[in-house]
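Work through this protein:
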Amino acid sequence: MEKLKAVVIGAGLIGRQHAEAIMRTPYVELAAISEPNDELRKQVGKSLGVDTYPCYREMIERVRPDVVHNCTPNHLHFEINKYVLEQGIHIYSEKPLAVSVPEGEELVALAKEKGVANGVNFNYRHNAAVQQMGAVLRSGEAGRPLLIHGHYIQDWLLYESDFNWRVISAKGGRSRALADIGSHWFDTVQAVTGRRIISVLANNFTVHPQRGDGHTVDTEDGSMVVLKFDDGTIGNVVVSQVSAGYKNNFDISLDCQNYSLRWNQEQSDRLKIGTREGGVCDTYAGPEFLADGIKRYGTIPSGHPVGWADAMTNAVKEFYASVQDGSYKDACSLSYSDFANAVYIMRIVEACMRSSDSGQWVTPL
């Protein structure tokens, strides 16, 4: 199998995770990384043993990669994604795809025009236990969902002294908690259930109007959202970045006719199945427990916990497999989020913002 040449733009935490996932994919070569910060660029180049560039355009022009990974702050996503597409290069971007729906739609149209593979990193759907949840639901054994609920809660912005570029809309976009972590919940629940969120009723909150050294906060710290799905199922999700003791607590529960299916990211190597007769039991994410068709997601034996980095690697592998065999041309067959799906997730987030402003149900159109 001919190796594909990949480059990464951005050497922060998420850029390094992309780089490591690429290096764990057998038929892909990590050719270079671009990063404008001199100290960080030298550090990452040395630790990963790859060429580095201060300018992403120079890197792309010199390396001529098959795939570009965009791992920059939110406000740079549109500019970079558009440039890469204009070069006719396959692209895998961090979310959000852009900071506004019109920008996202422009990128969807450009990707279609250029005919290149396009993906957005919603990696939680690629956890083996999450994939098993979807397989069990599709089998019909659990029955239809009666209620879908969960949360995504963290504590890293609990204190007024906590500050990050994401809290300022000029850098991160109008939405913060919903766009940053709520979007992952929306994507994962839609991918697992095969159902679309078609209406939301949201109540956003901001607990610190100022942060750090007097920075005015114009984004939400969290939200409580009631949901309607396209098959009539109802649901809800709580999103927060100010909940003490919750580090990265992503939880989904599908409460179905016969039993419930539950998954929590902080115990990410198992799927919980709850029955009225027997209570709750755990099913591990080893390949022996996974349904046919998704066994590739179970990369290590049961009892060896699969985690965030494993789901990330699965996501990257799925994208590159579609590039390698050309299946990216069939949008209906994709296991990962393409640009069009990413825009719909942006629409859901935007609908939550409008709903919180108006106090009314809003459709993400």
